[in-house]
TrEMBL record:
GO annotation (BP), single: DNA-templated transcription initiation
Residue ranges annotated for the RNA polymerase sigma factor 70 region 4 type domain, each copy included: 131-181
Keyword vocabulary terms for this entry: Sigma factor, Transcription, Transcription regulation
Protein name per its UniProtKB record: ECF subfamily RNA polymerase sigma-24 subunit
Molecular function via GO: DNA binding; sigma factor activity
One Pfam assignment: Sigma70_r2
Length: 187
């Protein structure tokens, strides 16, 4: 079902979340039918991998089931609240998968790839670990914006949509994040 949010939809989502907070499974099914396709589309666009997007969507709905009672109007529109849960769950899974070796990586370090020896590798690793350390110093939104932009190739418009933030804000996050990275790497 296509989903366009208006005041009626907003009220319906609010009502469903209140019912879910009281463990109403039928309300949860209705909520899923209303918003799952839109949330999945956002997860898939962020992740670029169907299996990761499916896992993120499932995890997001589990969180919605358990945290429906925590939702309040001051947290924004219900759909935005749920999309934020899905977005952050997708980004968390993307980070976790990058940190873990993938199946079949065992023994790859023994293959000769024709590149430099241990000294060159050590210098390259030192630079990578320095960059990783500097990335860890950024705020979550700065880091996510930079990584999605440079490693996933997202445009400013795609980032704006994926992060549910105005394009000017996204540009500021990237600019400030890159300036902070530069300062950190120059130390």
């Amino acid at each position: 079902m296509a989903y366009a949010q208006n005041d009626t939809d907003h009220d319906r989502l609010m009502r469903l979340l209140m019912q879910i907070a009281r463990d109403d499974r039928d309300a949860f099914r209705q909520l899923y039918e209303l918003v799952a396709a839109r949330m999945f589309g956002m997860c898939l666009k962020l992740a670029g991998q169907r299996d990761l997007a499916e896992e993120a969507l499932q995890d997001a709905f589990v969180q919605i089931w358990h945290r429906a009672s925590e939702y309040h109007r001051d947290r924004g529109a219900p759909l935005n609240w749920m999309m934020t849960i899905a977005r952050y769950r997708t980004l968390d899974l993307m980070r976790a998968r990058k940190a873990r070796p993938t199946v079949g990586d065992e023994g790859l370090e023994e293959l000769d790839d024709g590149r430099g020896g241990p000294l060159e590798s050590s210098l390259r690793d030192a630079g990578a670990s320095r960059l990783t350390g500097c990335l860890d110093e950024l705020s979550d939104v700065q880091r996510d914006s930079i990584l999605l932009s440079y490693y996933r190739g997202f445009t400013h418009e795609e980032l704006s949509q994926a992060l549910s933030s105005p394009i000017g804000t996204v540009k500021s996050w990237i600019r400030r994040g890159l300036m902070a990275l530069k300062r950190c790497l120059e130390r």
